[in-house]
Amino acid sequence: GGTVDAKRASERLRSAAGTLDYLQNKLEEGGWSEALQCIVGPDTTPVELLGAKAFRDIFLAQAQQFAIAQAVIDGKAPASLLCKLCLGVVHNLEIAVSALRADPAIKYGKITGAHGTANQACPLTMFLAFQITLFKALANRFAAADAWAKADYGTAIGYQQRAATLLRERADISSPGLPPTVGQLGLVDGDLTSLRNEVAQTLKGYLSDNNSVYFSAVPAEDALPPLPKHIVMMKPTPLVEPDIAPMALEPGGKSDEDLARELQEQFQVEEKAAAADSPGIMDTLTSMLGGASTKDKPAADAAAAVTADEAPPDVPSAPAPPSYEAATAVGAVSSAQENRLVEMGFG
């Protein structure tokens, strides 16, 4: 794969932890828990409540892992600090495991990292056990380096021996050591082999120098000084709840009432325009019967007026035809129109 941006990865994991923190707070204090109980039952604790806490701590532990990796690459952090940071990872992961085991409804033992039925799953129980043991081993490895630098050679050898023991594959679940690298854990086999070899070679060098130069007594494992107090340096990045403003239907931000009024006015305008362009029932009937429609009436009246004006003064002008309204008012219908009406079933 490509180069991992440890800083960016750590930031994203802290943001994820912040999102889970937000979810947890909403479940505990924001009324979300009651809403979920309406679905899962009134006497059931929502699984999401404990799950949010646990995975928040897992993400913070993983964020700290990336910080440790970057510090090792940079080579500037003292071994004593790296030891405490590794113990901080262990601390967060152990809290997460306790939370996941606290409620049987979570079914901790059945959570896996499978992406499909064709993939071999790595149970979450095994993954977290691997992580906890690995960082315990690393904490002892850094404690050994710190003790050696302080000329506490026997203690350094004791810590290094413990680190080597923790890095071995365990014989069974009750034995010290790493669980088998099944499923996705198989991806770290090469790096794990390199780490085991490095710890073994360093231990060999410590023993050789102590046996030939320093001759310091090596305490038994249960007599080793306790490791220093852990340091948890990673905190969740708070999720900023967005301030969601009501969405306006148009940039002007008009109210629903204003928009409804404008829509009604527009509809009325369009309705009048449509009525003006469409023939009415009387126009249609008159046209079918061979007469002039109401739309043609102004032109007919104008023509009649022109004819009257142009008539010779000694010739009496013809009487104007009755208006359309007058004709229809008295039921004046020509014989031809009468026949058409009869044919159409109006007679």
Explain the overall architecture.
The protein has 347 residues and is mainly α. It has twelve helices and no strands. The termini are far apart.
What percent of the residues sit in helical stretches (DSSP H or I)? 55-70%
CA radius of gyration is 46 Å
Total strands: 0
The biggest beta sheet, please?
none
Give average pLDDT, whole number. Answer: 79
Indicate the topology:
Elements: H1 6-29, H2 32-40, H3 47-74, H4 79-101, H5 124-149, H6 153-167, H7 189-214, H8 256-277, H9 281-288, H10 297-310, H11 324-329, H12 335-344
Helix pairs in contact: 1-3, 3-4, 4-5, 5-6, 6-7
Structure at a glance:
Helices cover 61% and strands 0% of the residues. With 347 residues, the protein is mainly α.
What are the key terms here?
mainly alpha
